[in-house]
Amino acid sequence: MDALRLLKEDHVKVKKMLSELEATTERAVKTREAVSSQLKDELEVHEAIEEEFLYPALKNHPKTRDIVLEAYEEHHVVDEVMLDGLPRNGNGYRTSTRGGELRGSQRRIS
User: For the chain, what are the domain ranges?
Assistant: First the structure.
C-alpha cells in the first residue's frame, strides 16, 4: 500500500471515530473514553507520518507551500484539543464543541 493511500484511509478512520463519539450519549462513558483514546493514538501516528515525510517534501514547492503551512497549523489545533481532552459534561464527554473543532480541522486537511 502506498503512503498517500494510507493517509487518506486514516482520514476516513478519524471521521468515523468522530461520528462514533458524536453518536454516543452522556451515559456511554466507557465507550467515549475508549474511542477518544484510540482517536488520540491514531492522530499521533498520522501527524508524525505527515510531518516527518510528506510535509518536508512539499513545503519547498511554491504550489503546495501554503497548503503545508495550513496543515501544520491544523495539526497544532488538533494537538491543543487532544491535550485539553474532549471536555466533560457531567460524567460524559461533550463532543459537540471540541469534537467539532477536530472535525473541522480534519475536513480542511482532507
Answer: 3-109
